[in-house]
Amino acid sequence: MSDPALGLLMLSLIVVVIMLGFPTAFTLMGLGMFFGFIAFHQPGQSWSDNRVFDLMVERTFGAMNNDTLISIPLFVLMGYVMERGALVDKMFYSIQLAFRRVPASLAVATLIVCTFWGIASGLVGAVVVLMGVIAFNPMLKAGYNVKLASGVITAGGTLGILIPPSVMIIVYAAVAGQSVVKLYASAMFPGFFLSFLYLVYIVGWALIDPKIAPKLSEAETKVPVSDWVRKLQAAYSPNMPRALVSAVFSPAKALAIEADGKRITYGMLWSNLVAVLFPLALSAITLWGIWWYVVVHQTNEARANTGAPRIERAATPENAPQSAAPAADAETPQALGAESSQTGTAEASDESQGPQEVGDVNLRGLGEAAPAEAGPPDQFYYWFWGIVAATAVVLAWYYWRMEAELFELLKLLTSSVMPLGILTIVVLAVILFGITTATESAAVGAAGAFLLAIHARSLTWQRVKESVFLTAKTTAMVCWLFVGSALFSGVFAILGGQQLVEKWVLSLNMSPIGFMVLSQAIIFVLGWPLEWTEIIVIFVPIFLPLLKHFNIDPILWGTLVFVNLQAAFLSPPVAMSAFYLKGVAPKHVTLNQIFAGMMPYMVIVIVCMIFMYLWPGMTLWLPNYLYGGG
Questions:
Q1: Is residue 407 predicted with pLDDT exceeding 90?
Q2: Where are the beta strands (DSSP E) in 296-382?
Q3: Helix, strand or coil for residue 216?
Q4: Residues 541, 563: Cα–Cα separation, whole Å
Q5: Is 75 helix (H, G, I), strand (E, B) or coil?
Q6: Closest CA to 452 of 121, 162, 165, 123
Q7: First CA to last CA across the chain, in angstroms?
Q8: Please, are residues 421 and 116 in contact by the beta-carbon 8 Å criterion?
Q9: What average pLDDT score do residues 299-303 get?
Q10: What pLDDT is recorded for position 305?
Q11: CA–CA gap between residue 479 and residue 25 (Å, rounded)
Q12: Euclidean distance between CA atoms 462 and 464, whole angstroms
């Protein structure tokens, strides 16, 4: 059998063996060692002198020396601490009350919590199981269709692996040799857009067929109002902002109020006034941040860098990681053996290179000046001040109609959503704006998760031990996957499998659109029997060398892969989200019902990918604006 035929046999065997249930990492290493031994074997050579053993050591060292992987245990620890801290119950309750007037309010609240909780934790299994425990039974008791209830939990739970900070993006960055921060920026809008499409589907289905999501009773949608709030309104004004401001400046009547055996204190008035002003403060800080970054910061950067090369911290090797993809031009075992013996040096050299040219597409690195440094376009000012005016009108209307129930709802949302929201925004902002590297941001997130759990008084020593153990287990799995993938891909290239695939694809004379459709279709089909980890570390490296032939941006292609791999969690028979939910679902809910509930979301994933391809700016605008490119 020829070497290329052995390579194709090797690729086919990996799918079969994984589907039989063998561990992916050790399967990759086992097949890599076996076929590598055959590739390097020479007549009369002692088995211990086979160069596959050298390749194994060098590939292992190269994978373990990848700085990008350091952020994985920290982000995973952040997720497990958040999950073990039991911080989501109150959030779900408050968001459900906030959307109580919306059709399928429980499903809408579930999707929103899945989205933001997934961002914080990044763990699909944890989010699906947690929301299955918290939201699945309430939806079924309210008369919701089983397909609707199961579909929203399984589909919403997978969003955490797409929206940054995401372990999947880090793994792809390490495999593809791309910047983590540029991939984070590129996945931001598509992730939220996919969540929006899910929301449109849920609400639209409920409007068309109200029977699938009956309205909740008045008792279930009524916001509980404290006794002291009613008495404060009677003493001052039904409008709570006006009542609290009056009470702060004229506290005599307020301090005489007694409710539930306790008197109102002056500190209590101030704390509630701060809670009332939170939407105003959040809007002001957000708008000021936009103005500062787009106008002040960019102008100062442009002046400071006039005539001087721009040097960004984000251009460190961690954010321009080494590639785990094999060299495509290795023709013989001897040639690749010599190449593999210099893996560490070659990869280190690759990391130090500047901007890359892939075909006609300029993939500019983070070290170049962003086009926004020339100053914001004129239309920015019209849009900005228009948004400021619209925000002012909405806030004025909101505060004008804020009575007891709206006030209590605001307090619930502030206490439950604000801590997690602030942590998420901080973690993403310090990455995207180049303040820290991905690893440092992960450390900030892990520390913040501990602080939130401690503040909620839900973190025990036992939960800390569980979180650390699970983090070590998950990280070890990912690292062994990289070792197996590096060895497997190296041997695959030695046997000429990569070249054979390239020649076959190029012989089809496809257009870039044709190749894009073909590659994404193959990945979509692979998502049915395989998980995302196997697809990223085994099959994505096969497509990566072909991107330059079709002038396809690897950032755009990779982001399409991220969205595409959402289907890997939703497509039977290896739909892990379904099995996670089945583990906590009532006995009368069958696996087939859960599968049926997930199917429409797979169609929505395809629709989202079509939008992304037709409108690439949704993916590429943010990384190009922040870091340059185009």
A1: yes
A2: 356-358, 361-363
A3: coil
A4: 17
A5: helix
A6: 121
A7: 46
A8: yes
A9: 65
A10: 60
A11: 9
A12: 5
Using alpha carbons, list the distances in angstroms from residue 537 to 22, 76, 165. 16, 19, 19
CA distance 627 to 630: 10
Q: Cβ(290)–Cβ(384) under 8 Å?
A: yes
Q: CA 40, CA 338: separation in Å to the nearest integer?
A: 12
* Mean pLDDT, all residues of the chain: 80
User: Tokens 């190749």, residue?
Assistant: 515
Torsion, CA 488, CA 491, CA 492, CA 497, rounded to 10 = 180
Q: What pLDDT digit, counting tens, does each position of 579-594 carry?
A: 888 888 888 888 889 9
- The secondary structure of 330-351 as a DSSP string is --SHHHHHHHHTTHHHHHHHHH
> What is the tens place of the pLDDT at every residue in 488-537?
888 887 888 777 888 888 888 888 889 999 999 988 888 887 778 888 88
Give dist(CA 465, CA 447) in Å, integer. Answer: 15
Q: Which amino acid is at 410?
A: L
Concatenated DSSP letters of 82-101:
HHHTT-SHHHHHHHHHHTTT
pLDDT reading at 288 higher than 60: yes
Q: Which residue has the tokens 């006609």?
A: 360
Q: Name the helix (H) or strand (E) containing 201.
A: helix 180-208
Report, as an integer, the average pLDDT of 155-184.
86
Region of poorest pLDDT, from 106-120, 171-185, 426-440, 441-455? 426-440
C-alpha angle 67-564-608 in degrees, rounded to nearest 5: 120
Counts of helices then strands in the chain (DSSP H, E): 32, 4
Cα(332)–Cα(201) distance, integer angstroms: 53
| pLDDT at residue 303 in the model | 63
